[in-house]
Amino acid sequence: MGITRQRFDVIKGAWGGVGSWAVWADARPGEGVKARVGDLSVLDPDANPGLLAALNPEVVMLGINGSGAPTPEPFSNFHDPSPRANHFKLRYAYRGTPFWGAYLTDTFKGIPSYGAKGTIEYLRAHPDIVELQLQRLCEELDALGAEDPLLIAFGRDVHGILQENLGDRYRIARVPHYAHFLGKEAYRAQALAGIDQCLVAAARPRGVRRPV
Q1: Is position 209 within any domain?
Q2: DSSP letter string over the chain?
């Protein structure tokens, strides 16, 4: 798929504090499963010449919301090196699939974080914020230049919101949240199955398929 350097830089400037790409450095032999998840050199086209060709704006993966403030470095969202983070499951699930290189972002930005349940309650109490934030999300998606992006929602809550509000515009797959208590193998299997189910139901896969 790939994108141009010009578009990459535009997205980095406009959305780098909240978005990222589903590309992670590999852990080295003997290192733990979470090693090098926070290595952002792989998201630097100057340090990683193959990056732009590997990016796939036709797939967008979405969480519910970030912690509030933009991340300290561009594209560091979903690349948290903390031992408590579970982004390593995303690396394991999508490595070697057509979904590697997808765009990553949160559906809602800059709102208070109350945990999953509290955040949903907050959003239900503030429908005006939901409408405004989804408008901003659509602007972010448009900036990718994708023709028919597949949205992959992390968890039931964000999938429900996206399906209700944007289901007439986009194909939206539901996969387990990476924080769920699942081993990386089970997470990969369930995530890819959820995407398959969406693509079959939509009946317009546009060449995006689960690898055999």
Answers
A1: no
A2: ----HHHHHHHHHHHTTT-EES--PPPPTTS-TTTTTT-GGGG-TTT-TTHHHH-EEEEEEEEEE-SSSPPSSTT-TT----TT--THHHHHHHTTSTTTTEEEEEEE-SSPP-HHHHHHHHHHH-HHHHHHHHHHHHHHHHHTT-SSPEEEEESHHHHHHHHHHHTTTSEEEEE--TTSS--HHHHHHHHHHHHHHHHHHHT--TT-----
